[in-house]
Amino acid sequence: MWTDWLLPGSSSAILLVVLSTFGMYLTILLLARWSGVRSFAEMSTFDIAVTIAIGSVFATTIASKEPALLQGMAAVATMFTIQLAVSRMRRHFGGFKGATDNTPILLMGPGGVMKPKNMRVARVTEDDLRTHLRQANVLDRAVVNAVVMEGTGKIHVLAGHERGKAAESWILDGVRDYDGESA
Known about the structure:
Blueprint: H1 2-6, H2 11-35, H3 45-63, H4 69-92, H5 94-100, E1 105-109, E2 113-114, H6 116-122, H7 126-135, E3 144-149, E4 155-159
Antiparallel strand pairs: 1-2, 1-3, 3-4
Helix pairs in contact: 2-3, 2-4, 3-4, 4-5
């Protein structure tokens, strides 16, 4: 019946959804304040996965009676704690960073020279590159210093005003380049 799609089985169900929403909202707010700005920064693949998982637990907890509110709060608190622990371990143990993060990859080098092997590894086409160059208001690819796909999947265009100028090596530290030597 159409009312099953619009109305809950009992009037108390709406009140419970409201209370669960407030409970989960306050939990996430307090945990985000405790763990810091990085909580939803999406700086690594792991951060993105945790953000999605927190959203999933939030939605499931507020829209149904299973899991119970306290279980949802415990799950979210555990995810925040794991994320905080992983971010600290990444800072102190270099090998741990490699296990949780994707490293950036160079898609285009100085003078707008495309890196075909890198593009294949990153699964990026020439059309994708053109789109990002247009978004960065690049009118001449010769002024491109580098195009980098970050570990999060975002693509950044580094362009200057000098043709063929290479980006400073510090900026490209840790960026993979399968077409040539390490960037």
